């Protein structure tokens, strides 16, 4: 080890020449991608015709990214370390595309982008162009699991990637603009959860180049001593490198990288071979200070560009129309001496090629960055073994998510290296605490005798940050492992943009044959709007459903299981699935149970169905009204409304339809789960009005049934932003989705009305008035609502 570290820390003159050649080649390719549509190797003088009509991309961060990449490649080649590279400054896309091209991976994946002059021209022309690739380190970029276009998530993805991945080193370059975001500021705490016994390591590199798009960055302008103290306070061992002198920077960074890698290996060896005292290690962190736009134009039109925010994007913006800018661009490109870097055919020359590691050790070819290649199926127990016994529908209550917790407990046991639950300090609150029977919460800070189920060896991930939990799971699944993110429904909106961005990643990955499918991102929302009556309006919001519905149909899945057995069936399906966003919404409180396990499995397989026992429809003719529902609480209200109608208007033919898979409602051409026209008519007819009680915002159902027969006949009741600290039933009343509102809607929209309908409407209004008075006086719901079940009706 000592000899290896010495070799890493002290590159020979030949190695420095190779490092510098690779770096110059990468910089040349980066500039070429931003500017050139012709003359890729400058075989002739540069002219305006060689310049793209639109100049897009981000130069300023790219040379620093390439500099780090070159040195990490040398480390891999010497040590055989498995590593992936996450670029927080996502707009440094051309630098990572250039790296993959120089390593040969790009041409292997995209055979038309050959390693010659024609292939280089294609590489340049495709960048940020119609029919080409984005400017980010996107899903099309080999070696990427982190796009970075929305800043703030590089560290959470990095930490997730190394959990239960002991041999992986993830290099996470944090841009100094990105370091100003809230998610990134919270994500430094990842070192408090990484266990060197069974996890890999993250090496953060804070790249301070001084500027963002239009001004300075906070950390770059702070006193370096303050920045050091800030990061030391998070628990890191700080290594600093700064400058722009060459070859001095190559020597200094090589020494810094050797020191960091040596420290990581020392920590892991001690932990895995019995020499660890159990205290949290001080993991290394490199602070790298280089000029913005390093090696680019220093001045343009007499104005300083290099080292300033003006180098952030396109330093020379008038190249096609300004002869001086065109001259400067050609000088800039030729400063990299491309004739030394590429041979007569345009292929990378030997000194450039030889820096790259071999095969899968190339960071652009690592299977860890194409996690489906490493994915192993979960060893799942039979979910039927956790069933709730249901002899009579809607007669008994159970905490449905508690059964899911028992299922996940046994998944933990069967899959000790590829399954984790991520939850913001709410595992017990969400009734998933059975997992603690087999695993503690993971924690690397001090543990006291008063702590419960907390240890360095735990693999249940709790931290009070939706961003961290969501991002850890993303990194975990994208590198081939399985898990679930569980959180309070309203606060899933904290990380909603992460859900959207991950969905976009999965959508684009489906278009790339070389991207292997990865385990799905499973999100469980509980403590829902309808049962957060005690916490108040801030905790009442079903908005993530709406966000997921906007994703393309080949990715988005939304499930609203009404009880424990449907939840178990849905969860089993989600844990087996690949490359989806599976959103499951169900509350944690005791709730009525409707279906036995066989019924639940059949119901979930279809996604929606008629509950004959709940209505009065005999199937021989169309009903007078269809009562539909999707969501646990509104399903209970719908079943109660149907029973009121059955009791008080027995001649009114009612049909009750429950929807568990929300994506069955669109047409098949709009979503792959969309039910056939025949089944849709069998459930909803094509002309009878439908009173639809929905867990989320009513507009979602109108969106989903658009294009179905006479879609205007759907009258949707759902959450309409009416909430406060109140009682459970009052939440449905305030949002006009209570059983009494549904009964009145049925009367108002039925095809025919038997005698007694007017009296029933008056009774419902009287019940609502009684409720309003009762909750204020007694501080709880009326007994006939609070304790209602079909068992009561059967007894009466």
How many separate structural domains? 3
Report the structural category: alpha/beta
CATH topology of the largest domain: Rossmann fold
Tell the overall outline: elongated
Beta strands, count: 22
Beta-strand content bin: 5-15%
Counting H and I runs of at least 4 residues, what is the number of helices? 28
Helix content: 25-40%
Domain Xylulose 5-phosphate/Fructose 6-phosphate phosphoketolase N-terminal: 12-373
Keywords: Lyase, Thiamine pyrophosphate
Family: Belongs to the XFP family.
Cofactor: thiamine diphosphate
Itemize the secondary structure elements and their pairings.
Elements: H1 2-9, H2 13-35, H3 62-79, E1 82-87, H4 93-103, H5 105-109, H6 117-126, H7 154-162, E2 168-175, H8 182-187, E3 201-208, H9 218-221, H10 224-233, E4 237-242, H11 248-272, E5 284-289, E6 299-300, E7 303-304, H12 323-334, H13 338-341, H14 350-353, E8 397-398, H15 400-414, E9 419-423, E10 441-442, E11 454-455, E12 461-462, H16 466-478, E13 482-488, H17 496-509, E14 521-526, H18 543-549, E15 556-559, H19 564-576, E16 581-585, E17 591-592, H20 597-606, E18 608-610, E19 625-630, H21 632-648, E20 654-659, H22 677-684, E21 690-694, H23 699-704, E22 714-717, H24 728-734, H25 739-749, H26 757-778, H27 783-786, H28 790-795
Parallel strand pairs: 1-2, 2-3, 3-5, 4-5, 9-12, 9-13, 10-11, 13-14, 14-16, 15-16, 19-20, 19-21, 21-22
Antiparallel strand pairs: 6-7, 8-17, 18-20
Helix pairs in contact: 1-11, 2-3, 2-4, 2-6, 3-4, 3-11, 7-16, 15-19, 19-20, 21-25, 25-26
